[in-house]
Amino acid sequence: MDFLTLFLIYLCFVLAVTALLCLCSGRKESFLTRSINRASQVLSLVIPTQLQRVTHQALHRLFHTRSCLFMVLHVALQAAVFGEYTWEVFVYCWELQFHLLLLLLPYLLLAGNLGCFLLCSRANPGTVTKSNAASLVKVYAYDGVLFQRGLVCPTCTVEKPARSKHCSVCRTCVHRFDHHCVWVNNCIGASNAAVFLLYLLSLTATAGAVAAVTAAFLIHHLFLTFPRIVFMLGFVILLTLVLGGYCSFSLYLALTNQTTNEWCKSRRFGGSPHLPSQPQDRPLVYKNIYSKGIWRNLKEIFNPPTAGSQSSLAGIAGYNDAFIDQYIRLLVQDIKEKRNTAVPCLGRPEGVRLKA
């Protein structure tokens, strides 16, 4: 079995494992989850307790505390890929008289990606504090399903604005919380979501450019002559596919004005219990009330709204069914009594005010 066949088997195996993880993610009781739980129970009987404790502490240190380890790994992987690209691919492609702009394109994309990487890791994601909590509460409306009015974060002791979440890693509440990214060692929120989206786009474009130039180079040469380049090409192609999928998902969230936190909650909401404020015989249905159209959603990503930029908490899409039913009932009653009904204030969807 030659080297190329082994490499193709390796690439297919990695892609199959990746596809399996993607298909099984988000399911509470999937086959993969049950298998992992059973394997963990078996291993817990074999592995010494002290080693288990050390492993748990190491995993907690990596994924539940702020650490620069993944940032260093991020830079090291980029350095390894571009070191191999510069040392062999660039030199041989230059001898083959490839266009200079094509060879320099990965470096230009790398420079832009590193800039977005630094900005995203150092930017304030939109921390909710006692001084700005009152103003942030006015930015987004509470949908009454995923986000409830009046909830107070027990750790930060501040009222939680709609679309916010407490990050256990950063130990702060983040406005329009999306997720905590270990690669940039920072939360992704309202203030750095645009930079993170540009970071993903530039990283995907960088991997794609390196893969395209390397593939074009390998067309002119034999695979077996440069085994390290072949493995580097496989890694970059896999990285392009994974990043392309995640980048498409992030673009979908941006175009629909959702966060990762809201998307995950909406998927799990079908099995959640009724809220105390809702009738027991009426099932709760989640509806994204924050989407305002593709262009306005993108504008909100790159120019997050503030309390002073909006005249109300919610647009007409923010009213729930209970409020509309209440308004119609009062309107019919008002017509019967031949009284004038004032238009309800958009910023106060809890009730309707009638003129005397």
Automatic annotation (TrEMBL):
Compartments where located: Cell membrane; Endoplasmic reticulum membrane; Golgi apparatus membrane
EC number from the UniProt entry: 2.3.1.225
Topology with respect to the bilayer: Multi-pass membrane protein
Record GO terms (molecular function): protein-cysteine S-palmitoyltransferase activity
Residues covered by the Palmitoyltransferase DHHC domain: 150-266
GO BP term, pick one: protein targeting to membrane
Any single Pfam family the record assigns to this protein: DHHC
Signal peptide: none
Annotated catalysed reactions: L-cysteinyl-[protein] + hexadecanoyl-CoA = S-hexadecanoyl-L-cysteinyl-[protein] + CoA
Name of the protein in its database record: Palmitoyltransferase
Species this chain originates from: Lamprotornis superbus
